[in-house]
Amino acid sequence: LNKTIILIGGGGHAAVLVELLKALDLRPAGFVDNNAEAIHLQGLPCLGSDEDVLNLDPTKCELVNGVGGSGNTGPRMAVYQRFRKRDFRFVKLVHPSAIVASDALLAEGVQVMAGAILQTGVIVAENTIINTGAIVDHHCRIGAHVHIAPGVVLSGAVTVGDGAHIGTGASIIQGRSIGAGSLVGSGSVVLTDVAPETKVFGVPAIPVARR
Ligand SMILES: CC(C)(COP(=O)(O)OP(=O)(O)OC[C@H]1O[C@@H](n2cnc3c(N)ncnc32)[C@H](O)[C@@H]1OP(=O)(O)O)[C@@H](O)C(=O)NCCC(=O)NCCS
Fold first, then answer.
1. 6 CA to middle of ligand 1, Å?
2. Pairing of β 135-136 and β 99-100
3. Which of 3, 15, 149, 160 sits at 20 to 30 Å (Cα–Cα) from 178?
4. Is 145 a catalytic residue?
């Protein structure tokens, strides 16, 4: 990590990533944000918009995807794909307080936030967030562009498809499969498989609509 680090996005998730980077003794050169609502990011300079980064030499910088989301994983996925198409690379980040099994496999751009636990045999595909304090137990397979929100518990051998969002504090029992693009509401207890592109919530979680 000796290239210039640039944070894409200036909202709440980006602010938490600045702290994560600090815990790793890394400081980004700045952030870019296409929206006016960028929050103050610990004095980091705003370097402009996404387009300004696209004009840089992709071999000279590394990116951190600062776009989070509270249900819609689309905007984060769009940022990742847009920059990857132009040969930019995304840093894989693991907070020093996270516990990650020695054989867990984390792909490019995965972000494991403070206090998360990933047990043996876990595989996480690109651009996925394992957020604060989430538990991903043994042999879970998590797709790309997934958001495992704070405090989620995935029991052993759960499968989560690409682009799914598992809401804050939800629990999923062992061996279940959450389809790509699905949304599990916060606090839900998932006892059965969830079809792709389906919104479920409640205890036990039941489908409420197609997304
Ligand atoms: C599921 C979710 C997306 C809401 O979906 P929605 O279709 O917009 O639902 P609404 O807010 O319009 O609520 C519709 C009804 O469902 C209920 N409901 C919504 N979410 C619920 C949940 N997670 N569990 C139980 N009931 C829920 C509401 O109370 C409401 O009930 P009512 O009709 O009796 O008043 C949202 O509740 C959620 O869980 N989001 C995830 C948030 C998250 O993970 N954030 C992480 C940030 S890092």
1. 34
2. unpaired
3. 15
4. no
Q: How far is the CA of 47 from the centre of ligand 1 (A)?
A: 36
Instruction: Give the list of residues 6+ apart from residue 118 with CB closer than 8 angstroms, or none.
Output: 98, 99, 100, 101, 104, 106, 112, 124, 130, 136
Asked whether 132 lines ligand 1 (CB < 6 A), one says: no
Give the whole-angstrom CA distance, residue 6 versus residue 154: 31
Q: Which residue in the block uniquely carries the two structure tokens 């980077």?
A: 21
CA angle 203/201/173 to nearest 5° reads 60
Q: Which of 13, 95, 138, 165 is catalytic?
A: 138
Distance 45 CA to ligand 1 centre (A): 36
Distance from CA of residue 45 to its chain's centroid? Answer: 23
* Ligand 1 contacts CB of residue 201 (under 6 A): yes
| All residues at 6 or more sequence positions from 157 whose CB lies less than 8 Å from its CB, including other chains | 138, 139, 140, 174, 175
Instruction: Report the predicted TM-score, pTM, of the whole model to 2 decimal places.
Output: 0.96
